Amino acid sequence: MLYDQVDKDDQRPVVPLSLGDPSAFSCFRTSPEAEDAIVRAVQSAEFNSYAPINGILPARRAVAEYISADLPYNLSADDVYLTAGCTQSIEVVLSVLARPGANILLPKPGYPLYESRAGYSKLEVRHFDLIPEKGWEVDLESVEALADENTAAIVIISPGNPCGNVFSYHHLNKVAETARKLGIFVIADEVYAHLAFGNNPYKYGIVDSIKSYFNISTNPATFVQAAIPQIFEKTKDDFFSKTINIMREAADVFHEKTKEIPCVTCPHKPDGSMFAMVKLNLSLLEDISDDTDFCLKLAREESVTVLPGVAVGLKNWLRITFSIEPESLEQGLDRMKAFCQRHSRK
Prior knowledge:
InterPro entries: Aminotransferase_I/II_large, PyrdxlP-dep_Trfase, PyrdxlP-dep_Trfase_major, PyrdxlP-dep_Trfase_small. Pfam families: Aminotran_1_2. By secondary structure, the chain is of the alpha/beta class. The chain is about 40% helix and about 15% strand. The protein has 2 domains: about 1-25 and about 240-340, Aspartate Aminotransferase, domain 1 (Alpha-Beta Complex), CATH 3.90.1150; about 30-235, 3-Layer(aba) Sandwich (Aspartate Aminotransferase, domain 2), CATH 3.40.640. It contains 12 helices and 11 strands. Helix 3 (about 55-70) runs parallel beside helix 9, helix 4 (about 85-95) crosses helix 5 (about 115-120) and helix 10 (about 235-260) runs parallel beside helix 12 (about 325-340).
């Protein structure tokens, strides 16, 4: 809907602030070590066959060793189950948890794939709130009010999509204590874990960035799995620090420039991930009915796409991604500012 609204006669490039896909931009290109590892695995002709359902042993062993470096205990290859990106991992987890009458607790706002997959698995969905004024922390009182004897799990996403928050250790511990008291599983989703701006970069998130786009089954392509050990061994630390620094600077630009747009408010500067939520103040605008109307008209008039908050569970908010070229980010936010000024209530 958004891209259909873009004026084809507008000579300005479209600024995509709606889709979090940094791979489309040269500043976020993956490491040459990852590219070389994939090429070598393909050229070896040793990994053209089916893989075990949980992944090939060398890849699982490499993942276990890599993650264990940041843990107080060691994982084994048997603790690792490789999937084709987060989509398949959500599919596997929710399929295991599904049972007649069961429900699952999802954050609002949140990643919509959980809802669609839960519906497919006939899991009832119950939404708990994230509190914007507290850095999008989990409203634990709402969790306790929603949970019952049929609650299978609670989903925790950190770094957050769509909010850009990173939960503190203290808050995660409180979430774990609450889940333990309620007797439910915690699904800890770190889809964008390699994009946290704090002291812990969660560097093992690189696995998600090399998922196969040539896969026609539900499992990761065997040659991609075969490349993982070399990627972990050869990729230099400055690849991760460079990416995180670019994202941190983009988050700073985003946060400062949104302050210049009177009709939007960012309650919490992004701590990680690629996204942020901003609240839309419709009382300051004329001829704009809601967040969807705002986004459609913005796309038509300024060739800037932003996701309406209703798509992630918060009506009259906007989800904006800042994982694009810095120059394009500034252009997109400047166009949004001009749009808001043009539609401001007189």
